[in-house]
């Protein structure tokens, strides 16, 4: 049971850390490479849709799936090492 709790806690912490760091790094990259063009924005503003789209059509699911899978693998190895070390110390 202790092994499962260590795995779950490790998984949650690692997936949160990886997703947060990915969001921060991509935000820094996008901000540093963005060059606004006010004239072009003004020209295209007349063609904008008046409806709001709630769901995006991006492929963020694949990035999230890879991040969560990587977190699960790392959490498994951490829980396996942690429980083995604790068991050896108890002897």
Would you write up a description of this structure?
With about 90 residues, this protein is mainly alpha-helical. Helix content is about 75%, strand content about 0%. The protein has 3 helices and no strands. It has helices at about 1-35, 40-45, 60-90. It is elongated and about 70 Å long. About 5% of the residues are buried.
Concise synopsis of the structure shown:
The chain has helices at residues 2-33, 38-44, 60-90. The chain has 91 residues and is mostly helical.
Element-level helix/strand string:
HHH
Summarize the biggest pleated sheet: none
**Derived structural class:** mainly alpha
Percentage of residues in strands: under 5%
As a percent range, the share of helical residues equals: over 70%
Low-confidence runs (pLDDT<50, min 5 residues)?
none
Q: What sort of overall outline do the alpha carbons produce when their principal axes are compared? A: elongated
Tell me the number of helical segments per DSSP (H or I, 4 or more residues long): 3
Let me know the average pLDDT.
79
Task: Say how many strands there are.
Answer: 0
Assembly annotation: single chain
Report Rg. Answer: 22 Å
What gap, in angstroms, lies between the N and C termini?
A: 19 Å
